[in-house]
Design a protein that fits this description.
By secondary structure, the protein is mainly α. The chain folds into two domains: 7-74; 89-127, no CATH class. The chain has helices at residues 3-8, 12-50, 57-72, 79-87, 106-129, and strands at 89-91, 97-99. It has a two-stranded antiparallel ribbon with strand order 1-2. Helix 2 crosses helix 3 (57-72). It is flat. The termini are far apart.
């Protein structure tokens, strides 16, 4: 029996509890790490540049939490879900909405109609934008 097989046999509620505990430990560890990074950067830069006092570890953690609140808000959801939802649709020039899923037909359309339509369009556009050639009268 492999490790993966034994993990698959663990009941789902136990997995949820284990993942929650691991998440709390990881969050606490990252908080400590970012606290030390903030203290180190603050104490290295701020007293020399701005004449501010040196801070302690807990003040660094407090700055980290404060910056998280100020710049991220209280949302527990990341913005990637919101971006994912808004990126599924886009507005066309005529104001209608299209879905990205419709692009799955693009390659087939290009082979059947698109390439020929584009070549016709470009030929027409080039002939309209080309300066009139001088006409020579031969008598």
């Amino acid at each position: 029996m492999t490790c993966m097989d034994s993990w698959d046999s663990v009941p789902k509620p136990v997995k949820i509890v284990l993942y929650t505990i691991l998440g709390v430990i990881a969050g606490f560890g990252l908080g400590l790490l970012f606290g030390w990074i903030i203290v180190w950067l603050w104490n290295w830069l701020m007293p020399m540049i701005f004449g501010l006092p040196v801070i302690t570890f807990w003040q660094g953690v407090g700055l980290f939490i404060l910056s998280k609140i100020l710049f991220s808000g209280f949302s527990s959801h990341s913005d990637s879900y919101k971006k994912e939802q808004t990126c599924k649709d886009w507005k066309c020039a005529d104001g209608t909405k299209r879905k990205y899923e419709s692009w799955k037909h693009y390659d087939e359309w290009w082979q059947r109609e698109g390439k020929a339509a584009f070549e016709t369009f470009t030929d027409k556009a080039e002939s309209e934008s080309a300066p009139d050639a001088p006409q020579h009268e031969d008598a």
